[in-house]
Amino acid sequence: MSSTTAEKKPRLTTSAMIASIASEGQKVQAAPFGKALVEYAASHPEVVGLTADLAKYTDLHLFAQAYPERFFQMGMAEQLLMGAAGGMAKEGLVPFATTYAVFGTRRAYDFIHQVIAEENLNVKICCALPGLTTGYGPSHQATEDLAMMRGIPGLTIVDPCDALDIAQAVPQIAAHKGPVYMRLLRGQVPMVLDEIEGYRFELGKAKLLRDGGDVLVISSGILTMRALEVAQDLAADNVGVAVLHCPTIKPLDEAAILEAVRYKHRLVVVAENHSVIGGLGEAVASTLLRHRVQPAGFLLAGLPDAFLDAGALPTLHDRYGISRSVLGARIKAWLA
């Protein structure tokens, strides 16, 4: 095929296969999940930790160091990980099971569905590398995990934005009776929401982080961080952007969403670090349709329904429309 007819993919502009989502100079906190779990477990001896050969890469190594007798290394066997966690929960323990999101969802789905969720067992599944937070290609990019897990009855799903969300979510999901799937940011995790006056994570609740008259961005996970950055950038162009953060994907805070959309003539953009298929965007759309609430416009700013490229995260975030600059440009174009 000639070069005039074949479409060539743009070359990567960066080369490092980094896995950090923090911008240069951004405030970060190290291992918020591991530290919060260690603190909570100090007064809750029923908490145990399990992982599938990924303690260091899910920050569970801190728990293993603090409570070696309560830590279980299951090896690279995610189905066994979930089965064992279910068995421990039946004995009255509160297992925190960690792995990468692709392995916890794709490889162990049947065990989560049948062993844990069907019996409403008190297992907390915490999975790193959600969505496009790694450059290692489709084998490691969990771009469909929320779609898969939303279909499991009774499973609570959490997609935290930053280190503060994670630290505050850990004791709340531990205290929640029933299975939980939480997307996990690990390592040097950005700290963003501490700058929002009065913000606290509340399981099952969405929070309006800022208001604006032109656009409402409904977001979760790291895309809430991006939405706040974009809102700041567009304010310089006299574009008012509101941000509604939905860290709990299921059960969704439908009341907060309806209140933020109803009677306000503004564009609604749902931004998520997930495929546009089956995630927060479709959950919000369903909510609005069922309650007959119609925004001025409705658009999805998520990842495409495709197998994504491998490469450096800044390049990939630009390519797939979830970086600060590209997301801002997309919103401005939609308003034009």
From TrEMBL:
Read off the PANTHER family from this record: PYRUVATE DEHYDROGENASE E1 COMPONENT, TRANSKETOLASE-LIKE PYRIMIDINE-BINDING DOMAIN-CONTAINING PROTEIN
Can you tell which superkingdom this protein's organism belongs to?
Bacteria
Which SUPFAM superfamilies does UniProt cross-reference here?
Answer: Thiamin diphosphate-binding fold (THDP-binding), TK C-terminal domain-like
Segments forming a coiled coil: none
Keyword flag ATP-binding: no
Q: Which cofactor does it need?
A: thiamine diphosphate
- The protein depicted here goes by the name Transketolase
Family membership? Belongs to the transketolase family.
Ranges for domain Transketolase-like pyrimidine-binding: 27-191
- Which Pfam family is one of those matched by this entry? Transket_pyr
Q: Is Endoplasmic reticulum one of the keywords?
A: no
Keyword field: Thiamine pyrophosphate
